[in-house]
Amino acid sequence: MKRLILWAPLAIFVAFLAIFATGLIKPEGKVIRSQMVGNPLPEFKLARGVPTQPGLATADFRDGKPRLLNVFASWCVPCAAEAPQLMQLAQAGVQIEAVAIRDRPEDIADFLRRYGNPYQRIGSDPTSSVQIAIGSSGVPETFVIDGKGIIRHQHIGDIRPEDIPEILAELEKAG
Amino acid sequence: MIAEAGLAALWLSAALAALQLVLGAVGLRGGREDMLAAVRPIALAQAVLTVLAFVLLIVLFLRVDLSVALVAANDHSAKPWLYKFAGTWGNHEGSMLMWVTILAVAGAAVALLERRLEDRTLIATLAAQAAIGLGFYGFLLFASNPFARLDPAPAEGQGLNPLLQDPGLAFHPPTLYLGYVGLSVAFSFAVGALVTRDVGPAFARAMRPWVLGAWILLTLGITAGSYWAYYELGWGGWWFWDPVENASLMPWLAATALLHSVTVLATRDGLRAWTVMLAVVAFSMSMVGTFLVRSGILTSVHAFAVDPRRGGFILVLLALYIGGALALFAARVGTVREGSRFDPVSREGALVINNLLLTAILGIVLVGTLYPLAAESLTGEKLSVGPPYFNAAAGPLALILMVVMVIGPLLRWRRDELRNLAGRIALPCLLASLALLAVVLLAPDISILPLLGLVFAAGVAAASIAPLWKRNLRRTPLFIWGMVISHLGIAVSVAGMASESAFTRERLVAARIGETEQVGPYSVRFDAVTPVAGPNWTAIEGTLTAMRGDTSFELKPEARAFWAPPTETNEAAIRTALDGQLYVVLGKSDEQGRWQLRLWWKPFVTLIWAGGAMIALGGALALIGRLRRERKAALREAWA
User: Fold this and answer.
1) CA B534 to the chain's CA centroid
2) How many angstroms separate the CA atoms of A81 and A76, rounded?
3) Of B294, B323, B25, nearest to B140 (Cα)?
4) Cβ–Cβ gap B306/A102 under 8 Å
5) Tens digits of residue pLDDT in A92-121
6) What pLDDT digit, counting tens, does each position of B168-193 carry?
7) Candidates A2, A19, A20, partner chain B, best to mutate (most B CBs within 10 A)
8) Cβ contacts (< 8 Å) between A21 and chain B: which residues?
9) What does the domain layout of chain B look like in residue ranges?
10) ipTM field
């Protein structure tokens, strides 16, 4: 009996580890919606995320065409999970721009090689300042931006196959 | 070149840590004296190299070398030099390097200074310290390299979070880290002693100064952090039960319990298994704290980089170290001979209750901190646990703890009689009753927790001085003074907390220039707003005149806008009087020329931090006293 009690601390610790591990793996909950929906994008100008593609600035969104703005990071697991859906959207002719959060060029390039590259432009946001300014609280998130640069819709979390019709409908509305 | 040299130094120290671990373990097993003899010098060399790496990183930050990714992400050429310097650890990688540096230096200090411990236990301790170090070197080198280059180098750095651009950054993290990591020594001692089955008074006496030192620094770090949050965040609060604050409170609670139980082990050879357990728990709490802050599981001003890969890495380290130590404990502690027994009514008995209460409070804080995580992983529901839970659950236990603090130090070791106690606690009880009477008469609508806080603070204050009665003050040992001052500090701090929560006056107003507002004993006139500029920010500065009786003075709160990175902060204007603080924050203006003003009058709030400083001072006196006594004893032995 006494010997068993000695193992109790270890057992409690293992239970804590399990909680930690699930907390670490689970993506962020879908609760906080941006106040920015309906507002124009804030002014920003981001350097290139990868040397082979242009960076991203607010001005790029004002050419009259609605498009998606995807907030992602190469270190983010759900971002890899949503990549096939983004590729599918890109092949359907949807224009997708990206902001890479706290990332490194070589890691982004590696990520794109592995999961495909649906992006026209990739801006690098090493301090999350643009992410915060557009009202995004995690990765991945996807915004529908209309041709005047106004945020029309926010999708929090990864885009799953069943979300695609909704995204396309929102793009339709913005157009 | 500097960055590469730093990286090389880091790799070399990692290799030395591996060598230290292997030589220690193999040497102990095979009884190879030649291997064991190498462990101490290796520990020293490892520390020298790690310090070199840390110094090189500081140099990179001071020179604003933007070809280094970390410097480019956190430094800025327009930053004042103090923040370039302190900015070295105002980010994830740098702060982890500081963590490892302190770990290595602590190990070297043990290798250099420790003479009381049995040799084999010391080697096992150093091997354990190297094992911890090795994991965190790996974490730095593989998941958070502070020396990674950035090509092409940007023209300017990103700057440092403006909330961190405060002199506090230069002191708060290093002190806290020294405390956190200092506890690693206690952890390694415990592991070492479990390996060699050498748990006894000599082990406790060897461990005590290290625990005391780490505890002093933790106390200072928490106190300073609390004051920093109080004046920098502009919310007027001094403790928020933020997960990261809890992460620093938990090791402190465990270390406080350890401090008391190690005394029982050193003086009376009791509580052997318990002391070893607490030593493991104290540093485990430090590591859990590091994990919570660094994994991005919790977000706060302390979470620099949200990166699950790093979280995973630290989680594996936690599993290895804490799980390993707890398994070793379970397997070995049964073979440690039981210590001597004691009567329930005795100093030891009171210290056991103290330990149980501190552990219970630790449990409450731990559960409250992790409950949101647990709830989310089980039900997917997002929730947060706030001050109402912590105050309601931990408050009463803390008050019971104060009762034990009145009685405990007045009990004799081994055995005492309850009826003898009555005479000793008569005066504290009388003072507490007087305090009760005074508070109830002067402030009849006070709520129960602050009331009890004030009453018990009076009791503890009286009782804490009691050990000095009938003593020749000049001959009283320094560690008795230490206990007296620390316990008195608790009373002072609790009185401050109770007074702040019961008597604070708050006004939130939209004021026009020229208007006067009343808060507490002050009337405050809003005179003007003017734009001002600093080295890397611009601000709106308010000018207010506060009047109380015949005296008046000017207050200048600021709303600052930093441009790298773009952030707004509030610089509160704080005026300290003998009986409290006036705290003024300037907010936004509306379209009609009115400005949001927050005014607080906080009676005796400064006692909270003054008490914290006294607690640390008491610890320092105890440390000096113990070391002196031991030196004398060693000299006497040498003569005999």
Assistant:
1) 32
2) 9
3) B294
4) yes
5) 889 999 999 888 888 899 889 988 999 999
6) 778 888 898 899 888 999 999 999 99
7) A20
8) 315
9) 1-165, 425-504+605-640, 505-603
10) 0.74
